[in-house]
User: Which sequence fits this backbone?
């Protein structure tokens, strides 16, 4: 795994710096976090391996079409086989942004996409969510975690799961949509 030439401030913006780790040029990372910000799992994906999952190629095509038409912001219903899932994208800058996934009206997950092309944009996007989380959990008795700011791999989709659907098929579909959109987004930036 290579490293990118720029440095990124470590968590909290202190003076320590860590190099951003870039994977091989066809891979991206998925980090799954819970609503407190605790890292649950991190895995490396490739665009080509993702395409081998049944239905992924159609989802990648759907996400890519929406992204090419409206790279700054869009909302789309995921095709009929996953009826009820709605994906919303909003770019926070040209190389990073936020995607939300809803089932009917319930928020399932929020995903932060950091391409690694602009370390400052990545940091600002991740930090904005971290600060929001701190405000939301203040005086609730729930201690927020800071794992999000400590994930050095890029390109990265950090997914904060707010609820896990009871239906295993819906849970798997939600995870697949998240990863397929990330693959589309990073391909859009010529990273996968």
Assistant:
């Amino acid at each position: 795994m290579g490293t990118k030439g720029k440095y990124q401030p470590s968590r909290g913006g202190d003076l320590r710096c860590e190099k951003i780790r870039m994977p091989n040029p066809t891979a991206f990372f998925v980090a799954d976090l819970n609503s407190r910000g605790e890292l649950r799992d991190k895995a490396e994906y490739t665009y080509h391996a993702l395409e081998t999952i049944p239905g992924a190629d159609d989802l990648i095509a759907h996400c890519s079409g929406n992204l090419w038409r409206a790279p700054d912001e869009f909302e789309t219903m995921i095709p009929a086989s996953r009826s009820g899932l709605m994906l919303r994208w909003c770019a926070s800058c040209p190389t990073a942004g936020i995607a939300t996934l809803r089932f009917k009206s319930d928020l399932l997950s929020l995903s932060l996409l950091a391409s690694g092309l602009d370390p400052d944009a990545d940091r600002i996007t991740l930090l904005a969510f971290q600060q929001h989380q701190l405000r939301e959990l203040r005086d609730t008795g729930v201690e927020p975690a800071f794992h999000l700011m400590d994930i050095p791999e890029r390109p990265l989709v950090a997914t904060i799961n707010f609820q896990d659907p009871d239906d295993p098929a819906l849970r798997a579909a939600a995870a697949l949509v998240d990863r397929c959109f990330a693959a589309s987004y990073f391909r859009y930036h010529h990273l996968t």
In short: Confidence is low (pLDDT under 50) at residues 1-18. Residues 113 and 157 are 4 Å apart (CA to CA). The first strand starts at residue 2 and ends at 9. Helices lie at 47-51, 56-69, 119-137, 168-188.
